[in-house]
Specification:
By secondary structure, the protein is α/β, with parallel strands linked by helices. It contains 12 helices and 38 strands. It folds into 5 domains: about 100 residues, no CATH class; about 150 residues, Rossmann fold, CATH 3.40.50.410; about 90 residues, Sandwich (Immunoglobulin-like), CATH 2.60.40; about 230 residues, Class I glutamine amidotransferase (GATase) domain (Rossmann fold, 3-Layer(aba) Sandwich); about 90 residues, Sandwich (Immunoglobulin-like), CATH 2.60.40.
């Protein structure tokens, strides 16, 4: 087809500085001059003459001009874009079947016509029976059109024919498709009879035995209004139920209370009854995932003697509202002779049996601060503390003259879980404790560890530790156990190695911290007096407790999903930050992203290589069956981290399953395209306008700047001057 050539004029503009505003002011000034002349002379011929010269003066000073462009319209290519989201699977026959019938009709004339499908992403597909298979959990039509418009496929592309129900997630905002013309063929009905759970919102974190609630929004179409029960279940057990009234075409809101009874992950289901004529029963049930923890961190602090270190640590633990502190201070032992009756020296006896036999498992962290177990007949309880740690508990031992080897812990069950090896029981007491003042040295290559990170930059953290006041005294240990992490060392060396000062380790499922000094309080009190900044003490102990209690935000390796809930076979985006136990990044290493079910069976996987910071990402196709699943990252045979997510039948994609013709109509009209209300009304592909308009030339038209016009204006001005002089006018 020969190109059609069209000449057009652009909008008027003025070359005078200030543009239209200045031109408007000039027009008012010249009009005022003409009016003043008319009132002065009261003669029509002189008013007309002055009006003509004023108009010429305006044209000369304002310089109006416009652009003239020559356009050619050529025939471009047409493409077809079909909706592959799950909303296309509803109705009987399904919307996807209507699309397939339309594609079969177009197939004979589709030579050279590319076919794409969109859902969560844009994909090119061959013409055939699988082109319209609906499985995506999102409907990102605007993103697909913008990708087509700016991609290499846009070369020579004049129009895109979109076949969709219009229920897209991103059609309400602005869309930039350039010169691309979008035609739309609507599929599906607006008059569906459907009751649905539009929104289910609950906090991702709840607390054990503390009331929580979930907010549920119910919508109804075509039922004349409903009054239905909304049921909350956990593991097929009804938790609570409440009724909600929903007007026809409107929404009803209800809040359902629940109280978690178990720690860990909990999956809850919200549902409403299904009406016999409900077109989309899949959206009558939604699920949500809750991480159940304790509302307060339970800490048991046992101190063997009053000291500045005990005072400051206890004050820090007490002032934190998120910590439930149980603390005991031993002021005397059974061998002391205080010359007073026992009832005059103690409020209560030390409840050894109650603490370490009955309630030990209820504590998140146990701290022995300069505490020796011997005088309190606790030898029989040390195996229980060891087992508590190995089952997943957390234990910290803080130094002093009654801790570590000085406390008689060598060769006891508790030494089995400590991350350091203690001197033998026969070692002289004078060799178990150093009494000098020293400045501890953090291990520089581990400065990213949260217990050492006093600043965002590792080098700045090392410098900050060097500026803190020195400590007084330290316990001597033989060495850190294999696999333990030494974060700080004493500057004195023993056997060619620096003495460990701060060591972290694991025992079974639990975590253990060993701090071989009882003067960390100087990082707060003394540092505050010298520099005005006492935050190092609190930051260190806050991070230490959170690390011991396995705060998810402090885990060295983490993986996240882009959403918590998905529909079947959804696109799952995964991002991971991967570091070893010492928080050194796994840089440029191969790792494997996997999706697994409840029994650990691998459902999907992708192999990637991390970047220099240990970051990696992958996109996997989600499971087809509803339920709870895990996304994990493996390095070799080691699982580094995991995150839970849900697959539900309905999901957000089916929350509002109605066809949306108004959206498609606006899209077509805004791009100069054609809207077709049903697939059976769609014409052949060559009937859709795919012409492309191109500019062949662009010229600026400025007639009032031409020398001939300037000469003509000068002649008119001279003529007016001569006539007025001849008539004796000024």
């Amino acid at each position: 087809m020969d190109p059609e050539v069209v000449d057009t004029l652009g909008p008027l503009r003025f070359a005078v500085p200030g543009g239209s505003l200045t031109a408007g002011v000039l027009a008012v000034v010249f009009a005022a001059l003409v009016l003043w002349e008319h009132r002065r002379l009261r003669a029509v011929r002189w008013t007309v003459l002055r009006g003509g010269t004023a108009a010429l003066a305006f044209l000369l000073t304002a310089q109006p001009r416009w652009s003239a462009q020559r356009l050619e319209r050529v025939q471009g290519r047409v493409a077809v874009l079909v909706d592959a989201s799950r909303s296309m699977a509803i109705e009987h026959p399904s919307r996807a079947q209507h699309v397939q019938h339309l594609l079969e009709r177009w197939d004979g004339e589709a030579e050279g016509v590319p076919l794409w499908r969109f859902g969560s992403e844009l994909q090119t597909v061959p013409w055939g029976p699988d082109a319209s298979r609906p499985r995506d959990d999102e409907s990102r039509l605007a993103a697909a059109l913008e990708e087509l418009a700016r991609g290499g496929e846009a070369e020579g592309l004049g129009a895109v024919v979109v076949v969709s129900d219009g229920a897209a997630n991103d059609l309400d905002g602005p869309i930039d498709v350039g010169e691309l013309r979008v035609h739309a063929v609507r599929v599906g009905r607006e008059d569906l009879r459907d009751d649905s759970l539009v929104e289910v919102h609950a906090d991702r974190v709840a607390f054990l035995r503390q009331p929580a609630k979930v907010r549920v929004v119910v919508r109804s179409w075509g039922g004349g209004g409903i009054d239905v029960p909304v049921t909350l279940r956990e593991d097929n057990e009804v938790v609570t139920e409440a009724r909600v009234q929903v007007p026809d075409g409107g929404e009803g809101v209800v809040e359902l209370p629940f109280t978690p009874r178990r720690l860990g992950r909990a999956v809850y289901h919200v549902s409403i009854p299904r009406a016999d004529d409900d077109a989309v029963p899949a959206n009558n049930e939604r699920a949500f995932l809750v991480r159940v923890g304790r509302d307060r961190l339970r800490v048991l602090l046992v101190a063997g003697a009053p000291s500045w270190d005990v005072r400051f640590l206890r004050a820090f633990l007490k002032q934190d509202p998120s910590i439930d502190l149980i603390s005991f201070f031993i002021l005397r032992t059974g061998s002391d002779m205080p010359m007073a009756e026992p009832e005059e020296l103690a409020l209560i006896p030390f409840p050894t049996d109650e603490l370490f036999r009955e309630h030990l498992g209820s504590f998140d962290v146990v701290i022995f601060q300069n505490f020796d177990y011997g005088p309190y007949q606790m030898a029989g309880y040390l195996p229980r503390i060891r087992d508590y740690v190995k089952r997943g508990g957390a234990f910290a031992m803080v130094g002093g003259d009654r801790s570590f080897g000085s406390g008689g812990y060598a060769s006891t069950p508790l030494e089995e879980v400590l991350p350091v090896e203690l001197p033998s029981a026969s070692t002289p007491a004078a060799r178990l404790v150093l009494t000098d003042r020293f400045r501890p040295r953090p291990v520089a290559e581990l400065a990213r560890h949260p217990l050492l990170a006093l600043a965002n930059d590792p080098a700045a953290s090392v410098a900050r530790w060097a500026s803190l006041p020195p400590l007084d005294g330290a316990n001597v240990v033989r060495r850190a156990r294999p696999g333990a992490t030494t974060l700080m060392v004493h500057p004195r060396r023993r056997g060619g190695r620096s003495l460990p000062l701060l060591v972290l380790g694991t025992a079974g499922q639990g975590r253990v911290l060993a701090l071989m000094s009882d003067s960390s309080w100087r990082w707060g009190f003394t540092a505050g007096g010298l520099t005005g900044d006492a935050s190092a003490f609190e930051r260190f102990w806050d991070r230490a407790l959170r690390w011991l209690a396995r705060d998810p935000n402090l885990e060295p390796a983490r993986v996240t999903t882009d959403r918590e809930r998905y529909g079947p076979e959804a696109r799952v985006e995964l991002r991971a930050l991967l570091r070893d136990a010492s928080y050194r990044p796994y840089a440029a290493e191969p790792v494997r992203f996997v999706l697994v079910d409840a029994v650990g069976e691998e459902l999907a996987a992708a192999d990637v290589v991390t970047d220099a910071e240990g970051r990696a990402q992958a996109v996997l196709r989600g499971p087809a069956q509803e339920g709870a699943y895990r996304a994990a990252v493996h390095r070799g045979d080691t699982r580094l981290c995991e995150e839970h997510f849900l697959v539900e039948r309905g999901g957000q994609e089916l929350a509002d399953p109605r066809s949306q013709p108004d959206r498609l109509r606006r899209l077509a009209e805004s791009t100069g395209g054609r809207y077709v209300d049903a697939p059976e009304d769609a014409p052949s592909l060559d009937a859709f306008d795919a012409s492309v308009t191109r500019r062949r030339s662009l010229d600026e038209v400025a007639p009032f700047a031409h020398p001939a016009f300037v000469a003509f204006a000068a002649l008119v001005f001279s003529l007016e001057w001569w006539l007025r002089r001849r008539a004796g006018l000024r």
